[in-house]
């Protein structure tokens, strides 16, 4: 028998008893049928078994939704139909712009349920990484702007606070959501606000491999703040998951295997199970009275779950596509007593509802424009290799001759090219999950033992391991080779993914060698060079996208190649090169010193200047190295020219500042005969657009280099207009 309760516990008991009964759970008994006026919409939910694929011909429910508040009156059947319409709205929108599709398709039902159950934006929902927010954007007043997704002046591809009050916290990198949700929950309490609210963090099984998630969960239980973590488990830890590596082809890390065992050990829970198990959040008398029911309903593995040990109340696993259970479970969590943090473990399918995505190894994580009916990606065949593929091929060549060469990636084997290396050398491929700090120190440990680690991490993601870069690698002079893909501006992913800062944040570290190839041949050569450096750490940065190709290399740099060299050759450490000499017998001489792939634009600018001004000669040099700086080359350019311009694909504080520092200390600027100017990325965050548009905005294209030189010479400047070719959307 249940004990009697005092009046203070009456409302809690009533709520608990309500959870055990009332199948409608606040849905007004309309869970099994559509409203009469919308009944026809339910017939549209059947998915066609094969191509051509197509969604509903109309979207009667979605058409009525301007804000999440418009969902509140929907029945459960209508929520299901809305999810169907929303999924296809997302597919159709991304097919026209490109973007992150698979992750968005996997959270359609969750997005609908969250906005139905919680009072957004008063209840903040924080999306980790936030590449899955397209359905969220559509439901929060941005449906009409979806054709501008990831375009210049359009919607961001990620959550962005300045874009909507429903984007509670901006993202783009991973593993930040729990910390942010906890901070917002604590702030609500500190402000003394009476209104009870819930902070919700949605984090995937990839992002939760990052250590910051556990730092936040450890702190959340200690602070006892009212947050809900929704752990979205879709088996896609890396991009793509399944790359051959030292750990096999399973998702990277033990946590994924652990949660898989949780799911395999028991069936999905339904809302009746959850109603019983949520008993623990009520006063102690009720907990004792229902202990046996709770033990049976939860059926947890012996010793509880990892999340329970961290102080969270664990619920799950739950089918994240089953609104019949997901909605009432979220309602129960919302209406719970107390402040103990809750973790709801849901299982979803990335790419859900679109067969081409479901069948793809990467679940259409990031796609260009595509044909909806077939799933065919609308991309033209590449005419030149990508810098990423040149790196991968070079690393394979090195590894074939040296068994000590290994590759490390932080959950980005596809983006970095490590997947290609892994297919050839799986036992020498290490995917550590989204754990850049661990990746760097793991590489340091390998280097201590004589292994030659190539640690391939996007420039923007290496920022997350800065202390390890200094403390664990540079101070100890360990020969870790850092490969920084996506250096410079990256296109449609925008400011969270630009590799703008690595020249500045690495260049200030003593004892590290830092280089940037101007083209694909130089990239091969620099790979050979850093392979041979065994007494210090090295870093090699290069941009995303396609390389120049043989015709351009021969035209601009006079390589005279009929085919690419079979192997790279080692370059002198800290020595640049002159690729174009100034013509003789001129009254004014300009030197353009470039680091990285702005070299081609610099040569084009030099040609244009000399073509328009017979009295001007222009030298173009490739610095190759930022550290050690080729001071002899810099001194020569300063002494023999009236103007010296440095060009780089990085922020202030980088290559140009190192050159100016040397010129200043060396007295080259004392007489006032040399005009020196650095050309760097502007001191702002450059929003989404094509890479060409972004470099125009940054003022680092040919016409801006040309204009800078002419202004310094006191000559008239006609900027003209840019002639940007159409570019394919870029996806991380």
Could you describe the 3D structure shown?
Helix 9 (271-277) packs across helix 11 (291-298). The chain has 28 helices and 17 strands. Helix 24 (599-612) links the parallel strand 13 and strand 14. The strands form three sheets. It has a seven-stranded mixed sheet with strand order 7-6-8-9-11-10-15, sandwiched between helices. Strands 1-2-3-5-4 form a five-stranded parallel sheet, sandwiched between helices. By secondary structure, it is α/β, with parallel strands linked by helices. The longest helix has 22 residues, at 76-97. Helix content is 37%, strand content 12%.
Average the pLDDT over all residues and give the rounded result.
87
Q: What proportion strand?
A: 5-15%
Radius of gyration, Cα only, in angstroms? 29 Å
Helix content: 25-40%
List the total number of helices.
28
Low-confidence residue ranges: 1-46, 282-304
The N- and C-terminal alpha carbons lie at a distance of: 59 Å
Question: Within the largest sheet, what's the order of strands?
Answer: 7-6-8-9-11-10-15
Largest sheet: 7 strands, mixed
The assigned structural class equals alpha/beta
Count the beta strands.
17
User: What's the shape?
Assistant: globular
Structural key phrases:
17 strands, alpha/beta, disordered N terminus, 7-stranded mixed sheet, globular
């Amino acid at each position: 028998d249940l004990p009697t309760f005092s009046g203070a516990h009456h409302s809690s008991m009533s709520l608990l008893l309500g959870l055990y009964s009332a199948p409608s759970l606040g849905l007004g008994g309309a869970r099994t049928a559509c409203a009469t006026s919308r009944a026809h919409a339910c017939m549209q939910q059947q998915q066609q078994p094969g191509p051509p694929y197509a969604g509903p011909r109309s979207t009667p429910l979605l058409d009525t939704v301007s804000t999440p508040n418009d969902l509140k009156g929907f029945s459960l059947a209508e929520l299901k139909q809305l999810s169907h319409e929303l999924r296809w709205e997302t597919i159709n929108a991304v097919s026209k712009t490109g973007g992150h599709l698979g992750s968005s398709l996997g959270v359609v039902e969750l997005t609908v349920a969250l906005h139905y159950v919680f009072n957004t934006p008063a209840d903040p929902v924080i999306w980790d990484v936030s590449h899955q927010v397209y359905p969220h954007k559509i439901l929060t007043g941005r449906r009409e702007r979806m054709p501008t997704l990831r375009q210049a002046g359009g919607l961001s591809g990620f959550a962005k606070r300045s874009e909507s009050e429903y984007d509670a916290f901006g993202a783009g990198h991973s593993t930040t959501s729990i910390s942010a949700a906890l901070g917002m929950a604590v702030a609500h309490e500190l402000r003394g606000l009476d209104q009870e609210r819930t902070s919700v963090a949605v984090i995937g099984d990839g992002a939760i491999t990052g250590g910051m998630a556990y730092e936040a969960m450890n702190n959340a239980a200690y602070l006892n703040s009212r947050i809900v973590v929704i752990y979205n488990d879709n088996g896609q830890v890396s991009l793509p998951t399944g790359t051959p590596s030292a750990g096999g082809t399973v998702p990277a890390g033990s946590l994924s295997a652990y949660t898989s065992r949780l799911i395999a050990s028991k069936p999905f829970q339904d809302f009746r199970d959850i109603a019983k198990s949520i008993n623990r959040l009520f006063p102690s008398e009720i907990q004792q009275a229902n202990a046996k029911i709770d033990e049976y309903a939860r059926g947890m593995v012996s010793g509880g779950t990892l999340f329970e040990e961290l102080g969270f109340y664990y619920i799950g696993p739950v089918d994240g596509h089953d609104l019949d259970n997901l909605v009432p479970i979220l309602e129960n969590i919302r209406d719970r007593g107390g402040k103990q943090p809750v973790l709801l473990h849901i299982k979803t399918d990335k790419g859900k509802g679109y067969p081409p995505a479901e069948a793809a190894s990467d679940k259409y994580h990031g796609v260009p424009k595509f044909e909806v009916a077939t799933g065919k990606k609308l991309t033209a065949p590449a005419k030149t290799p990508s810098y990423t593929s040149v790196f991968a091929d070079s690393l394979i060549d090195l590894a074939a001759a040296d068994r000590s060469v290994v590759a490390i990636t932080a959950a980005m084997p596809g983006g970095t090219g490590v997947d290609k290396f892994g297919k050839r050398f799986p036992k020498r491929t290490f995917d550590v999950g989204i754990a850049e700090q661990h990746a760097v120190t793991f590489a340091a440990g390998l280097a201590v033992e004589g292994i030659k680690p190539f640690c391939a991490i996007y420039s923007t993601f290496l920022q997350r391991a800065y202390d390890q870069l200094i403390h664990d690698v540079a101070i100890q002079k360990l020969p870790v080779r850092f490969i920084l893909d996506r250096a410079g501006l990256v296109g449609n992913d925008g400011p969270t993914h630009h590799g703008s800062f690595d020249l500045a944040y690495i260049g200030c570290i003593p004892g590290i060698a830092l280089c940037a190839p101007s083209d694909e041949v130089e990239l091969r050569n620099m790979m050979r060079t850093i392979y041979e450096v065994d007494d210090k750490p090295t870093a090699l940065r290069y941009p995303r996208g396609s390389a120049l190709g043989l015709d351009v290399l021969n035209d601009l740099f006079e390589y005279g190649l009929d085919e690419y060299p079979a192997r790279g050759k080692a370059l002198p450490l800290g020595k640049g090169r002159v690729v174009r000499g100034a013509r003789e017998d001129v009254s004014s001489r300009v030197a353009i010193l470039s680091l990285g792939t702005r070299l081609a634009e610099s040569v084009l600018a030099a040609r244009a200047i000399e073509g328009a001004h017979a009295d001007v000669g222009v030298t173009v040099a490739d610095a190759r190295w930022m550290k050690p700086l080729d001071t002899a080359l810099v001194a020569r350019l300063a002494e023999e020219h009236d103007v010296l311009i440095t060009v780089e694909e990085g922020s202030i504080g980088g290559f140009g500042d190192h050159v100016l520092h040397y010129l200043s200390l060396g007295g080259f600027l004392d007489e006032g005969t040399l005009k020196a100017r650095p050309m760097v990325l502007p001191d702002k965050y450059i929003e989404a657009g094509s890479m060409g548009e972004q470099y125009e905005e940054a003022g680092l294209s040919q016409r801006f280099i040309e204009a800078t030189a002419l202004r310094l010479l006191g000559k008239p400047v006609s900027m003209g207009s840019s002639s940007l070719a159409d570019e394919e959307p870029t996806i991380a």
